[in-house]
Amino acid sequence: MPAGTKYGASSWTATAVQPDSSALISPEPRTLRRGGALWRCDILGIVAVTVTANDNAMDSKANPALRIRESRASDVGAILRIYAEEVRTGTASFELVAPSREEMSVRRESLLAAGFPYLVAELGDLFAGYAYAGPYRTRPAYRFTVENSVYVAKRARKRGVGLQLLNTLISECEAGGFRQMVAIIGDSRHTASIQLHSRAGFRLVGTIQNVGMKFGGWLDSVLMQRALGEGANTIPTEPLHDG
Q: What is the distance between the alpha carbons of residues 38 and 106, in angstroms, rounded to a whole number?
């Protein structure tokens, strides 16, 4: 996908329902069910999607609408708070020192300028998490493949936030013309992340053992992958640029 190409829609709203096999977007605006949510679409892509977590994932007394939207510059502080805590206390990120707010802002702006989606989730007034896609590798032959990142605030976990962020990110990347998505999960003990990606259609493709060192211990990298859109079944119509 050429740099600067923009993706999909800009905001989402709706109510969670059970998914079925509907997947077509007709010339007329249409409602379809996918990924555990109700999607309102037209021929240009997603018009809106709003999700409420299911009863098993969230107590009914604290079940505000889960809203997925495009990130804004004003979100960077909340994004950094989630990420910095993971850097300091977790192994999802192999960074050892959290970036500054300025660095986090530059990273976000660079992804958006290159045409990648960068989304955030809100549970009522709670900033619940964020997700983005970026290049899997920088060399041009990889240009139809993206790598995803999904981070959920600790207070918002087990409420369906991660899955809806990931499903929406997948749809946006499909709308952008990408064909494969790769997840690189920090450490094989991150069973919640592995299960999340499995629920979103990813399959395990390998584990690179003992490649990271953090908190005095060796860490694996788990690689998972799923096709986007037509995947490898067809060649993209966009002219190929081999460098």
A: 34
Cα distances (Å, whole numbers) of residue 198 to 22, 78, 191, 194, 222: 20, 27, 10, 6, 12
pLDDT in tens, the chain (243 residues): 444 444 443 344 333 333 333 333 333 444 444 444 444 444 333 333 444 343 233 333 344 689 999 999 999 999 999 999 999 999 999 999 999 999 999 999 999 999 999 999 999 999 999 999 999 999 999 999 999 999 999 999 999 999 999 999 999 999 999 999 999 999 999 999 999 999 999 999 999 999 999 999 999 999 999 999 999 999 998 754 444
* CATH fourth-level superfamily of 30-227: Gcn5-related N-acetyltransferase (GNAT) (3.40.630.30)
- Going from N- to C-terminal start, the domains of the chain cover 30-227
What distance in Å separates the CA atoms of residue 161 and residue 63, rounded to the nearest whole number?
12
Q: Which of 51, 24, 241 is nearest to 128 (CA)?
A: 51
